[in-house]
Amino acid sequence: MLLSITTTHGPAGDLGYLLHKHPDKFQSFNLSFGTAHTYYPEVGDGRCTACLLLDVDAVGLVRGRNPDQDFLLAQYVNDRPYVASSFLSVAIAQVFGSALQGRCKDRPELVTTPIPLEARLDVLPVRGGEGFLRAVFEPLGYEVEATHHPLDEKFPEWGESPYFSVTIRRTVPLSELLTHLYVLVPVFDARKHYFVGHDEMEKLLAKGEGWLARHPAKDEIARRYLGHRLSLYRMALSRLVEDEEPGDGDDETPANERAEQRLEKPLSLNDQRLGAVVAALRASGAKRILDLGCGEGKLLRELLGDRQFEEILGLDVSVRSLEIATRRLKLERLPDAQAKRLKLVHGSLTYRDRRLDGFDAAAVVEVIEHLDPPRLRAFERVLFECARPGTVVLTTPNREFNVTWDALPAGRFRHADHRFEWTRREFHEWATAVATRFGYAVRFLPVGPEHPEYGSPTQMGVFERG
């Protein structure tokens, strides 16, 4: 398994200082699972490449152990010696430990200096495909180049392999690049060669400090890094949410949401959206209301101000958002009669939750576009089949309208965490199919000023149970 790191930062010897490995030397290091070799195949005035070659002793790893009874050769015949995995993370920590920790005695000013870096991994097993690969690296600012390798060119009927040769590029301090590789390489196939316990969770939180809490794929990264151990994943996620720091401007609103709000502010679109949702809920005659994905409580405040709504339940997957909602709504200061009308709960929209049963109506405001498409199907069943309120008021961005905003680059979504944004046709097709499948009727309403060609910025569907 080979990792190569290339820089065009000069002089070329700077990479040797940072890695604490002399460019003129071939060095070998004995590890518990094999041998790591470091060498420099390229050292020039304008370009330098360092390589970490990992030779995993697959036989030595299992010698003396009881083999798998289902497949007697499984511990000997596998891809571990040939692919980037948790073995590489351990090798980075042991061979490039000083660079990983950001130490350089001879050239300390280099440690925090962003330099142009290119890292190539041959070969990386990516469970989730190229889409997941890009979803992990691109939010960190990396340019990603991936070559997919077939399982066997002579036997295409065997299907696609999970193997990629991957190159990532970014101008960044070397310690930051190594930290990202150290954490993320084992995430792609979620198979660690050692026991995953609380120490691994602490390692993830320590190495993820400053970037993981803000990563849009932090849930999946944490789940895979921790070997799908649910208790550890939940603990790690709750601490990551707590570690998310307030941004500038609004002291509690995340930066991505502030960017979206700045984009929409000239239209006062958020106010118009909330007003349209409350009006639709009021017209339905509903008294018991769900606010699913309630966030920091903007709609909840509007609902509390209307006496028609006698019971309101707000649910969100983010503990941090619920804490902010509690403060903003000043729940501890509300009169008892008012406080009894509102309840905030932590939960997911993709798992059946009996606390959501029996409500007259549900509001789902700018939520579905944050769900990965595979999870959207689960959300549909949770809401329309299991909870099954009489009315559902659902809003989502209209992608066609995006071209009218000069501040939004072409092809970009309004919010960095959006997994998709639908055209009017795509939304109508999805909503109509859902309504038909679960026994609802749906009507569509525009929200915000309508453009003659691109429609309104927000599209709203009102589902009513038949």
Automatic annotation (TrEMBL):
Its cofactor is Mg(2+). It catalyses: small RNA 3'-end nucleotide + S-adenosyl-L-methionine = small RNA 3'-end 2'-O-methylnucleotide + S-adenosyl-L-homocysteine + H(+). GO terms for biological process: regulatory ncRNA-mediated gene silencing; RNA methylation. One of its GO terms (molecular function) is small RNA 2'-O-methyltransferase activity. The keyword RNA-binding applies. It holds the Pfam family Methyltransf_23. This is Small RNA 2'-O-methyltransferase. It comes from Fimbriiglobus ruber.
